[in-house]
Amino acid sequence: MLKAKLKQPQDRPTSRRDLMAAALSPSPRRFPPSLRSPFVGPDEKLNHFTLKFKSSVHKSHYQPRAKANSCDVRVEIPKQWYNLVADLSVKPPPPLHPKTHKPLNPEDLSPLFPDELIKQEVTNERFISIPDEVIDVFRLWRPTPLIRAKRLERLLETPARIYYKYEGTSPAGSHKPNTAVPQAWYNAKQGVKKVVTETGAGQWGSSLAFACSLFGLNCEVWQVRASYDQKPYRRLMMQTWGAKVHPSPSTVTNCGKKILESDPSSPGSLGIAISEAVEVAATNVDTKYCLGSVLNHVLLHQTVIGEECLKQLEAINETPDIIIGCTGGGSNFGGLAFPFIREKLKGRMSPIFRAVEPTACPSLTKGIYAYDYGDTAGMTPLMKMHTLGHGFVPDPIHAGGLRYHGMAPLISHVYELGFMEAVAIPQTECFQAAVQFARTEGLIPAPEPTHAIAAAIREALNCKATGEEKVILMAMCGHGHFDLAAYDKYLHGDMIDLSYSTEKVQASLAAVPQVVP
Fold it and tell me: Which segments carry the region annotation Disordered (predicted)?
């Protein structure tokens, strides 16, 4: 009965979202335009109930969100991931063995990763097919909406057109399941029983816990201490999906114990949490390690964002002039930007790519481009990246997912090639932008994408001053429903800007290995 009310493509089974929409459509009457779902495409032709509003309300306040905001088109979930390395004439420098400092062999990664992920990490193939089992899980929330921020545009009085690709519709509320699901599936396919990982704000940890629950894997997570204390509901999400969660640094690992001996009140960092998870994976034969950002195969998986967005923009005849995303490890930014960089390299468009990072952890804008460890203890391969030094522990800003000492090697390489630019923005400006966004667009963003919103607002106001009608595209990588304590601090005037310490960075950079590959 429900399926009969929907026009479904033959190769796409009815999704949970479509079932919910159909359940709300028993009569030919319609909702007022402002109450229509932003996720319903015109091809679905759903009916809605009628609600009446007082005639004193100006009808322009109730424009259909699907019509006035969402790009309102249905696109297919991508069937392939895109590998930017294939289209780069200058290839990225290879990772090095942490002990020999020689180029890493793929088999050196086998204690940490399953075979298929290792192949994806080192491949030069342009496209990698997405397994049907992974696409089947993606159908729970993909494709994700591309929405035009018309109300924000009106607030700013800008001639610019602002679009955001919203990844907060996933079960975990962020873009992270885009890689958590395939990583869990490849591990389960190889017969792995348990995976371990790190997490900052908790989006990655909760995403991996969710994915592991689908494929019967045990999951153990080390969450950065500052975020463990700030965001208890992320920890409860992980535990609800069956994960075991430790604050990092912890007393469970040798690395954690050493950190706590030198600093019992350490707020932790992603580098420390990675060290703890890698230590456990490397010393247990039945355990593999999963990483939520930085590595090539992670950025590869995230390109479903950009591939979808390309089709959505094409359907409404828009071409972005500038693409903006926050960067911590780089997966969110790379996932949106890489397919567009491909199009720019082919001469089909010419957008500016702008990465936005916190002033408290500015690896691109203040770091050096050098070989460094991906973790604090120096257990991972050496990677050529922009780094503040693997020993750098950022101040506990609320954007816990951006508190990483380095940047993805592929993002760093693209930055060095001049294909993108970067800026750093303090957290109070970011939260000011987030509140403006929430009060116009209705969505409360996670602290991480507030950096992209702040940069987009800067660009929109610049367009207001110049009169340019630019198309601004930004990555809205997740919602902030579990980050309201940070909003509470901002709204009560208790939030302060934390900037990195020059002395701390210099001391950390002094420990970066001197490598001549």
Answer: 1-36
CB atoms inside a 10 Å sphere around CB 382: 25
State pLDDT tens for residues 494-512: 988 877 677 778 888 888 8
Domains of the chain (ranges; CATH) run: 3-68 (no CATH), 80-133+175-296 (3.40.50.1100), 142-173+304-509 (3.40.50.1100)
Task: Dig out the tokens for 506 from the structure.
Answer: 């210099």
- CA 194 – CA 287 distance, rounded (Å): 5
The DSSP secondary structure of 102-142, one letter per residue, reads SBPPGGGGTTTS-HHHHHHHH---SEEEPPHHHHHHHTTTP
Q: How many whole angstroms separate alpha carbon 336 and alpha carbon 165? A: 8
**Structure tokens that stand for 139 in this block:** 């159908």
What are phi and psi for residue 430, nearest 5 degrees? -65, -45
Buried (b) or exposed (e) across 87-107, using 16+ Cβ within 10 A?
ebeeebbebbebeeeeebeee
pTM, rounded to two decimals: 0.84
**Cα Rg, the chain, nearest whole Å:** 22
